[in-house]
Amino acid sequence: QKEVEQNSGPLSVPEGAIASLNCTYSDRVSQSFFWYRQYSGKSPELIMSIYSNGDKEDGRFTAQLNKASQYVSLLIRDSQPSDSATYLCAVNVYTGGFKTIFGAGTRLFVKA
Amino acid sequence: EPEVTQTPSHQVTQMGQEVILRCVPISNHLYFYWYRQILGQKVEFLVSFYNNEISEKSEIFDDQFSVERPDGSNFTLKIRSTKLEDSAMYFCASSEGPSGGTDTQYFGPGTRLTVL
């Protein structure tokens, strides 16, 4: 069973701080990794994708991937109250065809 | 900006009834997906669809489920005989290329299905 694990939180950070979200996955051959943001009652919205080991930065967001450790993380700098949401880690796995496996998500609260 | 649309936004049905959830993917996308999310739980992959065929399906996608692209724009999910446990938010998504590559999946707003 291919799994994606996340700390459910909630993670609470003050406004302006760095929020660090972590995710581990079980499938060693996975090549594509995604972070989605989901507001309550809404659909997932893609924040970042990452495919190679190392860091990838996009504005206030940095995704980090370590395939050897099967670990992917998301850093949010200068956190804003509007960043309060559930952050979903997703991994593409191959089981004869590709499918996307989501983690249960980490709830983030940014306090003003 | 192009977006995935889904109808209806909320569907209420009686147990045992058939429901069809509709999606209009982004026009130049070739790969289509259905996911479900039971309230408070994780987003779960149901099925992917390409070139009028199912590419991959999960163990959730059993014989009561079917997908179809009846015309050039719509992509539908049919649940033949709904059960109480089918109550969930159903998301449609589409991508230009296959999800195994680097193509981004764009999600629709979802249809909330309530089975009574």
Give a structural overview.
The complex is a heterodimer of chains A (112) and B (116). Chain A has strands at 4-6, 11-14, 19-25, 33-38, 45-50, 54-58, 61-66, 71-76, 85-94, 98-102, 106-111. Chain A is an all-beta fold. In chain A, the strands form 2 sheets. In chain A, strands 2, 4, 5, 9, 10 and 11 form a 6-stranded mixed beta sheet that branches. A 5-stranded antiparallel beta sheet of chain A has the order 1-3-8-7-6, with no helix packed on it. Chain A is globular, with a radius of gyration of 14 Å. The model of chain A has no long low-confidence stretch (mean pLDDT 93). Chain B is mostly beta strands. In chain B, the strands form 2 sheets. In chain B, strands 2, 4, 5, 6, 9, 10 and 11 form a 7-stranded mixed beta sheet that branches. A 4-stranded antiparallel beta sheet of chain B has the order 1-3-8-7, with no helix packed on it. The chains are: A mainly beta (112), B mainly beta (116).
Characteristic terms for this protein:
heterodimer, A: 112 residues, mainly beta, 6-stranded mixed β-sheet, 11 strands, 57% strand, globular, B: 116 residues, 4-stranded antiparallel β-sheet
As a percent range, the share of strand residues of chain B is over 45%
Taking all Cα atoms into account, the compactness measure Rg of chain B is 13 Å
Structural class of chain A: mainly beta
- Helix segment tally of chain A: 0
- The ordered H/E elements of chain A are EEEEEEEEEEE
Shape of chain B: globular
Mean pLDDT of chain B: 93
**Cα end-to-end separation of chain B:** 37 Å
* Topology pattern of chain B, helix = H, strand = E: EEEEEEEEEEE
Largest beta-sheet details of chain A: 6 strands, mixed
Q: Helix coverage percent of residues of chain A?
A: under 10%
Characterize the largest beta sheet of chain B: strand count, sense, and whether it forms a barrel: 7 strands, mixed
Oligomer: heterodimer
Tally of helical segments of chain B: 0
Largest inter-chain contact set: A-B, 26 and 24 residues
Choose one word for the global shape of chain A.
globular
Beta-strand content of chain A: over 45%
Find the structural class of chain B using helix and strand composition.
mainly beta
- Give the uncertain stretches of chain B in residue-range form: none
Distance between the termini of chain A: 40 Å
